[in-house]
Amino acid sequence: MAREDLLGGGLNQVAAQGTLRQLRREQLVPAPWQPRRSFDRAGLLALARSVRAEGVRQNLVVRPHPTQGGHYEIIAGERRWRASDPDVGAALALTPEEVGTLEGEAPRTLPCLIVNLDDPEARRLSAVENLQREDLDPVDEASYRLLLVQEALGLAAGEHVMTSSLAQEIGRRLHTLRNAPEQFPEETAALRRLFQQLGTLTWESYATNHLPLLQLPDDLLTAVREGRVAGRSALLIHRQTDEELRAELLEKALAGASFKELTGLVDTHQGKAWRTLAADVRGRLGVRQLDRLDASRRKRVVGLLRQLQQELDGGAPDREA
């Protein structure tokens, strides 16, 4: 993902020409539109120790607050701001032993790059800066991509719109675009360009496998954020209307069951265990897999495949195979 390509020439130049200044922590305010609301406790504690021992080594990116004079809105760096809180022990509900590991005082001022950006520019810069991070959980990553998709589609951005509501709105729009791309060539082209710049996945894949994470209920959302349940396993669990099955699946997922194992449980519950069997066999029938069998086993497998072929064609099995 090329930061310069995502920011564009004008915004990249503005971001590079900001003013460096030390600002008091109380002058800084998190942006209300920031989607990231989950901060790993252990990681934040480690960062709190670091900023007390070595100070904040990376600039926060801020802009003059739109309504509060003398204050600045955080575009990138909220995690550093939180870690520098003198009362971080209370904020993280640290144990006395953990508080004892915080040696030194919290910094009174933080190094900030002050940039003059309007709302859409601030959102884009925030999303791009945060997507560069390696510690984003799947939900936060989907949230920051959502900001960029919102801009690419030219949708109005409200400060206090719930992420789940925005995800639902954009999900409906992406569904429409996917079903009739020829009717909306400019929007589909904009999405294609954006996700080519972001890399790793297409906008269609995002709409199917990542955007729905933002509409999960709290129990599943928390489990995904904490890495205890994989995203697609959570979506599978969320689709179940049988509460007993849902509870069983969640329990199994939290115990480490794979997506394949959970799918098997769903198929069995629905009286369609054959679907799991078919998927498993299909995954084992590649040419390379058959090549690795010895001649005797391969002959038996091929014979079974011919019988299956006859059965699916509606004819009698070929007993000579």
Automatic annotation (TrEMBL):
<dbReference type="InterPro" id="IPR036086">
    <property type="entry name" value="ParB/Sulfiredoxin_sf"/>
</dbReference>
<dbReference type="InterPro" id="IPR050336">
    <property type="entry name" value="Chromosome_partition/occlusion"/>
</dbReference>
<dbReference type="Pfam" id="PF02195">
    <property type="entry name" value="ParB_N"/>
</dbReference>
<feature type="domain" description="ParB-like N-terminal">
    <location>
        <begin position="21"/>
        <end position="131"/>
    </location>
</feature>
<dbReference type="InterPro" id="IPR003115">
    <property type="entry name" value="ParB_N"/>
</dbReference>
<protein>
    <submittedName>
        <fullName>Nucleoid occlusion protein</fullName>
    </submittedName>
</protein>
